[in-house]
Amino acid sequence: MGKKIKLATLLLSLSLLTLFAFNNPSERFFEIAKNLDIFATLFKEVNTFYVDEVNPNHLMETGIEAMLASLDPYTNYIPEDDIEDFRTMTTGQYGGIGALVGQRNGRNLVLMPYKGFSAYSSGLQIGDEILKIDGIDLKDKPSTNVSKLLKGQANTDLTLSIKRFGQEKPMDFSLKRENITIGNVPYSGLVNEEVGYIKLTDFTSGASKEVKEALVKLKSQGAKKIILDLRDNPGGLLNEAVNISNLFVSKGSEIVSTKGKMVDWNKSYKALNSPVDTEIPIAVLTSSRSASASEIVAGVIQDYDRGVLVGQKTFGKGLVQATRPLTYNSQLKVTTAKYYTPSGRCIQAIDYSHRNDDGSVGKVPDSLKVAFKTTNGRVVYDGGGVDPDFTVDKGLLAPIAVSLIQNGLIFDFANMYKFQNSTIKAARQFRLSDQEYAKFVSWLSDKDYDYTTKVEKTIDDLIANAKNEKYYEDISAQIQSLKTRVAHNKETDLQKFKKEIKEILESEIVTRYYLQEGMIEASFDHDLDVQEALRVLKSKEQYNKVLSRN
Q: How far apart are CA 447 and CA 3, in angstroms?
C-alpha cells in the first residue's frame, strides 16, 4: 500500500504544480483526476486478475519511471533506498574508507585509494582484490552490494580480507570508516614554467573554493596562463558554477539566467564577488561529456571572450533540476527551468533523447541553430552544447588497445610491474623501455583478448547481406580476398599500435606509485587537448586574434 500511496501523492503533487499554468484550471483538474482514477483502477485489476503473481512494488516503480522517462532524462524518482547515494552525488560526502572500488572480470578490486583517508593510511593498494568484508564472502556479489558494505556510520570498524598480487595468503586489514568528502579538484600544478593546470571533476559543495585556492597557488608559483580542465565533468550545483565563473570575470557580470514555467524560476545570477584575475589567459578543456555546470562555466568564458575553449563540443544539457520532497522519505528530481548563458543562448540539445555512442550531441542542422554574439562580436550558436574555439579530433583507440583494457590485462600487468619494481622515476619522466614492452608482449602470449575490428565487422555484415540478397556467390572470391587482407593479427597489432599501448601502460603503471595525481601528470606530454591548449597559449598573437575576431 505504501507504494500505491506514494505514486498517488507523486501524481497529485505534479498535478498541483501544473494546474495553475493552464487557462482552464477546472478542465485541467478534471483530466488529472480522471486519469488518476483510471490508473488506480488499472493497478487494482492487474494485481487481482493477472495470470501470474505480480510484485506491486516493482510494478509501481516501473510505472513511475516510465511516466518520468516520457518527460526528459533528468527528471527522476529517488526512492528512500537511494537517498544516500543521491546525497553523496550532490554533496560529495559519505561515510566510508576513502577508496574507489569496482569489478574487473568478476573480481572486486581497489581501483584508487584516496590520500588522507583510511584506505590509504591502512596500506590498501590499487589492484588489491577484496575477498571478504567483516567475514562476508563477496564471491558473486555485485559491486553495488560491496559498496553498501563498505559504507556506514563514521567511526565504525570493519575488517577486509585482501588478496594481493605476489602474496600467497590473503591479508587482513582493519579500517575505520570516516566522513569522506570527495574533492572537486584532484590535481593542480604547473605544466611548464608559466602554464598552470587545474583539473575540476565535479561541482559539489566547495568546488569554487577549491578552484580559487588552486588558482591563487599557481599564480604564486609563477603561472602566467591557466588551463582549466572541465573534460568529462558532469556538472552539479548551479551556485558553484556561478562562483567559479566569478573568479575570472568582473563583479556584477551576468553569469547565467534561468527561465521556467513558474515565475519563481525566472532568475538572473550575477558575479557577486571580486574576481581573482580578469586578465590571465585561459584555455578551457571540454569534451562530449562536459555537461550542465561545466557548460555554464565554458559558456561564460566564451561569451565574455575571457578565454579560449579547446577540445570537443560539450554534452548539451541546458536544464536546471530541483529536488522536491515526497512521502516516505523519497524525492523527485524534476526539471524546473532552462538556463541561458550571458549571450542569451541555451545550450540544451534540441533532441536530448538521442545521442551518439560517446554521449555527444552530433551534428545539428544549421536551420535549427540560432546565432548569438559574444562581447567582442564573435558569432556563437545554440542548439546543443558549446562549440570549442579549437576542435581536437583525438580519434578512437585501436581495437587491440580497447580489448586489452576491457579484459583487465593492462591493469593486471601494472600490478605485476609494481610487485617487481619498488620504485620508478617521477610521473612525467617515467617511460616503459622497449625491453619492458617486449616483456609485456611475451606475457600476453597465453592470455585471451580476442577482438573484432570495425572493418572486419563491416565485412561480416556485407557477407550476411550478400547472402540474404543472393549475391554472395557472385562476389564471394572478392569478399574472401578482402577479408584475408584486413584480418587482424595480434602480434602485428601489438607492434603497429605500440606507441598507443605503451602510453596506456605507462599511465596505468604510474598510478600504482603516484595515484591519481601521477596519472594526470603522466598524461600531459601525450594528451592532445593539453598539447593544443599549450600551443594556443604560447602564441599571444593567435590567442588574441581568436578572441577579437568578428
A: 49
- Rounded Cα distance between 238 and 73, Å, is 18
The more confidently predicted of residues 497 and 352 is 497
User: What mean pLDDT is predicted for residues 144-162?
Assistant: 89
Cβ atoms of 265 and 292 within 8 Å: the answer is no
Beta-carbon contacts of 54 under 8 Å, excluding residues fewer than 6 positions away, are 46, 47
Cα gap 299→154, rounded to integer Å: 39
Catalytic center residues: 292, 303, 317
Q: What is the pLDDT of residue 455?
A: 80
Task: Please give the backbone phi and psi of residue 200, each rounded to the nearest 5 degrees, phi first.
Answer: -115, 115
Stated pTM of the model: 0.85
Could you give the number of structural domains in the chain?
5
pLDDT 10s digits, 29-42: 888 889 889 988 98
Q: Quick one: 244 and 361 in the same domain?
A: yes
Would you state the pLDDT for residue 135? 93
Domain containing residue 138: CATH number: 2.30.42.10
**Strand 171-176 with 136-137, pairing:** unpaired
Indicate the pairing of strand 331-340 with strand 76-78: antiparallel
Q: Are both 65 and 201 inside the same structural domain?
A: no
CA angle 399, 532, 425 (to 5 degrees): 70
Domain with 412 in it = 399-451+489-531
Cβ contact 318:278 at 8 Å? no
| Region for residue 384 given its phi and psi (left: phi exceeds 0; alpha: psi -120 to 50; beta: otherwise) | left
